[in-house]
Amino acid sequence: MTAYFDDKDLAHFGDLKQHNPELWAMFEKYYGAAFEPGLLTKREKVLIGFAVAQSSQCPYCIDSYTQQALEQGMTMKHLAEAMHAAASLKAGITLAHGLVAHNVDKKVSM
Amino acid sequence: MTAAIPLRVLREEPAPSRFARRLSGGDRPGELRAGTVRTLQVNVGKRCNQACRHCHVDASPLRTEVMADDVVDACLDVLARHPELTTLDITGGAPELHPRFREMVARAHALGRAVLVRHNLTVQFEPGQADLPEFFAAHGCEVVCSLPHYTAEATDRQRGRGVYEKSLAGLRRLNEVGYGRGDGLVLTLVANPVGAFLPPKQEDLERDTRAYLAEQHAIGFDRLITITNMPIARFEEWLRRAGLHDEYMDRLEAAYNPATVDGLMCRSLVSVDWTGHVHDCDFNQMLEMGLAHGLPQRVHGLDVRALAGREILTGDHCFGCTAGAGSSCGGAIA
Lengths: 110, 334
Fold this sequence. Notes:
Radius of gyration of chain B: 20 Å
Oligomer: heterodimer
Number of helices of chain A: 5
Number of domains of chain A: 1
Number of helices of chain B: 12
Shape of chain B: globular
CATH class of chain A: Mainly Alpha
Radius of gyration of chain A: 19 Å
CATH topology of chain B: TIM Barrel
C-alpha cells in the first residue's frame, strides 16, 4: 500500500462486495433507494450527502458529492454555504456537549 | 532489406470508434442515419468579440475567418430552393459581426423561414450593434443566448471577467423589446457546465435560473436548454492540460443513453462552414469531417433532398451529445 485515500480508490469501492455479497447487495439497495428523489429533490439529497461528507471528513465522499453537486447545477458558492452550515452545526454540537461538563460541575462542586 | 508487411494488416479496416460500438451495442460499428433535413445551420465564421474557454469553434477577436459572399449566396439559394428547410440556424463566432448577417436574416424571414440566431449577448455592445434587439424582434428571430450559469462567478470563469454583467444588460435590452415575455418573441438561454462534468437536469436548472434572474435582476426568458461541453478544440485542450481528458471521455461514455439517439440534431440538420463545406453537425464541422464519401461536400448547388437518409459520420466526440439526458442545439433530448 503506497498511500491512504488515493482518489483512484473510489472507482474500486464495489470491490468490497466480494467479502460479503449478500450484505453488500442490501447496502447498495438501501443507499440507492435513500438517494432517489422523494419529498426531497435529488439536489437536496446531494447537498445533505455533501454536508455529511464534509462533517464526517470522508475524502472519497467529498470528491463524489462535490462532482454530483456540480452536475446538479450548483457551484462552489452553494457548497460554501452548505459547508458553513455543517461547520456551524458542528461548532454548536461541540458547545452543546459543554452542557455535560456544566451539569457535572454543578453536581459535584460546592 | 524491406520488412514484409502482412497483407492482412494492410487490408484491415480501421478499428471502429468506441462510439460506433456503443451505437450497435456490440463489437461491430453501428450506423447512424439522417431523416429529412429540416434545418440549415450556417456557421458564418470564427470571428467573435469573446474568447470563451470552452469554445468548440476556437472563436476569438483575433480570428479572421469569415464566410465569403459566394458562400453566403449559395446558402441563401439552398434555402430558397428547399421549402422543407423550415429553419435557418445562424452561428459563429459571433454571427452578428459578419457584414451580411442582417441580410441573411432578412432574406430567410422574407422566405417565411424561422430564423434562429446563436447570440452571445455581449456583442450588442460592440460598435454598430446597439439596435440588434430591435432587429431580432422585427424579423421574429428566436434568440438563443449563451449564459453558462446564473451566477456571476461561474459565468465569468468560463467566458471572461465582466461578461456576466454585460450579459445581464443584453438580456434586459432583449426583455425591453418584448423577448422572454411569452408573447412570441422567443428568448432561449443556453447553459453549459463550467468544467469537466455533465450538465444538470434541464428543467431543474431552468427552474433555478428563472427564479434567480427574476428575483435578483427582474429578467425573464422563455426556456433554458443545457448543452454538454464537447471534447474538441479549446475545451479538449483544457481537458488535456488539466489531466482530465480520459476521465471526461470515460464519464461521457459511462453516461451513454441510447434513448437520445433518435433526437440527435444531426438527424435533421446539415451544417455549412465558413468555406462552404457541408458537415453533419457543427462539431463535425470543427473536426473538418465533411459528409460521408460519395455525398456532395459543398453548399454550392446543394440538393438537400439527396441528404435525407444519409449515413452520418460519427466519432468518440459524439458521446458529448448522447451522455445522460443528451445534448443538442435544442438542449436535452431524453
